[in-house]
Specification:
The complex is a heterodimer of chains A (about 500) and B (about 325). Chain A has 17 helices and 22 strands. Chain A is of the alpha/beta class and about 500 residues long. Chain A has a domain at about 350-425. Chain A is globular and about 70 Å long. Chain A starts with 14 loop residues before the first strand and ends with a helix. The model of chain A is unreliable at about 1-10 (pLDDT under 50). Chain B has a domain at about 50-250 and about 265-270. Chain B contains 14 helices and 4 strands. In chain B, helix 2 (about 15-35) packs parallel to helix 13 and helix 3 (about 40-65) runs antiparallel to helix 11. Classes of the chains: A alpha/beta (about 500), B mainly alpha (about 325).
Chain lengths: ~500, ~325
Amino acid sequence: MTGRESAKGGQKPLLSLRNINMTFGGVKALKHVSFDVLPGDVHCLAGENGSGKSTLIKIITGVYRPQDGAVIEFDGQTYSHMSPVTAQNSGIQVIWQDLALFPEMTVAENITFQTLLGRWPRFVNYNGMREKAVKALARLGVTLDVDRPLKDYAIAQRQIVAIARALVGEAKLVFMDEPTASLTQSETDRLLDIVRTLSASGVAVVFVSHRLAEVLEISSRLTVLRDGALVGVYSTEGMTQSRITELMTGKTFDQTVRARDVSANPVVLEVEGLCRPGQFVDISFTVRRGETLGITGLLGAGRTELALSLFGMLKPWSGTVKLEGKPVHFASNRDAIAAGIAYLSEDRLSLGLIQPQSIADNLVIASLDKIAASGLLSDGRKRDLVAQWIADLGVKVGKQEDAISTLSGGNQQRIAIAKWLATDPKLLILDAPTVGVDVGARAGIFDIVAKLAQTGLAIILISDEVPEVYFNADRVLHMAKGRVVNQFLPADRSLAEIEAAVYA
Amino acid sequence: MTAILNRIRTGLGPDMAGPGFALIAVLVVFSLASPQFFSRATFGSVAFQLPELGLLTLAMLLPVLTGGLNLAITFTANIAGLTVAWVLQQNGGADAGPFAFLLGALLGVGVGALSGVVMGLVIAYTRAHPILVSLSMMIFLRGLGEFLTRGGDVSGFPAFLQPLGHGSILGFPIPLLVFIGCVLIWHVLLTRMKLGFNTYMIGSNIEAARYSGVNTRKVLVLVYTLSGAMCAIAGIIMLARFNSVRVGHGESYLLITVLACFLGGVNPFGGFGRVIPVAVALVVLQLLSSGLNILGANQHLATAVWGILLITVMILRFAAGHFKSLKRKKG
């Protein structure tokens, strides 16, 4: 190992890329991109899905080889391309979104296993391992029991373990891919503190994130990619979220409050005193025809559990649910679907859609009776039904038989919405409908939601991103620790006021 | 020329390529190696031997599509056969009438289905792994059967059962007709019925299917019930062909049925696979063993060649997938 004397010093970049080009199957994934990271910098790499962010990281870490003419300088050395081994040996580490850890192994093993690879003699020194692990965690200001299996810890702690692993690997530059995607606000705050600690100790951190609020909070500089090309490098000082969105998408979004007054419409859903101890207590609200009711609150506020109770997948202990005036009790979600309630899951990848199966099959799965003729399913009817929904919701698809996993997040979500609309619901519950959907495509999803509300559908929109419910719902409930703590109309309050209350 | 090939390929579906290719290869190699291969005798023997393995493979197919397995198929078939034999013996053995057989067959299918119901309920409600559940059922059925028969043969059936195992209608062996009928039923079930649709969905992601309103427990129970009923049909055909029932008959078919599914392009983890390619794969396996037989090879060698064929198919599939991704990268 060489020392770390070169990491100090003036404004000479730690990492500098020039003239990076990359083509996949005729598609230019990166066009003449350059990218600089300063020592100790906290840098944000922003861009929509498909803008070339991950391709760029994979070039820096040696997974891909850029086309000829590329120049990569890292820590004083010049390369035409990296290999995974040179990248790691010279101090470049990536923490992928899935963390790539071993849940069954102990914290210490997870932190140190990389340093053991290929060393001789091939014995494991458990004491040395634990010492190293404790030291790495101490650098982050964290104490964990290093002898416990990793699976005992929640996702936030696992992330810290992944960061500690990077430190043990003598990282000078750490990439974090969507690190806050599954964290609560307080966990995110702690992670951001750790990033600051890292940066202060001279390690440069590059954040790859969709969440614009954190980007602004943590990073000093910002590189934006769009369609494989560099848009620019910006200082985050004086930068606003809407400006970043504009840079990422190349479009301007005027966000206006969409709320309408629907208090004269008949009530579709009436919930009174609904309880499921440990998850939510004493929930009462109504949703009217054509109304979009927003429910916001932090992760763990009981939002999803409430939605699943309305959808018949969890049983409330007490309280009543009335649908169009009639009390309903659902033994399963099939009863709820038959009664006219649809629930779009927050977890599109593993619960919302069946990823390996076709677009068409995913769309018709909840409404098979519609494509049946005298008891047998009809391919012709299926094709017509799917074609109609694809046209109605403006989904971009190749063939109906393609696996749904081949679609972008936004298009997948449209198919998931179509699946539920095909069941003719009276109430549509959308649980975090924009998770994993590009900023540009989000607006398209909310346009659909607005149109559906105009046709008289009652909608419950659940999101932990306050602006989403603020701009798109007619009325907003704020849930915290299983209770509705506040209820307001977007027109009466400012966004900042509500954000402050929710994120407090 | 390529256009025609492409049209044939899209018409048959991509999963037909493997078994179709293997079928052509086997036909070409054996007809070159032996002039007697293309004879009535060869195809006669294939037509009579195919149905036993074929029906058991159909019984295996449905659980595999849900991402499970039914290891109890052969002993379910034996127990169903025993049920038929018992009813026949109670009604006069060799003198029993067709009505007794009909009653026995219904009861046999019922017993087969019952073993499926039990497995399906346990798998659906306890979420225990299908391998463990069906293995337990297999051991139970074997023990029960050996206890009831004292490990011996049960025989002495009425003469009218003979044609069911050895007779032909218009030149088509009756067992083959039964098999073709069952293939068609399975084909319609999987491509045209809600149960079939849901079987595929469950095989890919059972939780996502449940969130979409699929009654996943009901589907699992029905899948194993149908699998058990299909075993019973196989057991009845075996009874007629051997003119006896013995616990352990067809035991060696068990793993071959899994491999026949795989050769027919069924995804071993569930969610994908069609009946017709599996039927073609069965024909290939049977032609292979009959062809080797004609060449004078030992029966055991034929089994060894099946193993080699399946390993070759796996390597070719890997190579084909690799080639495809290379082509995609180069554009």
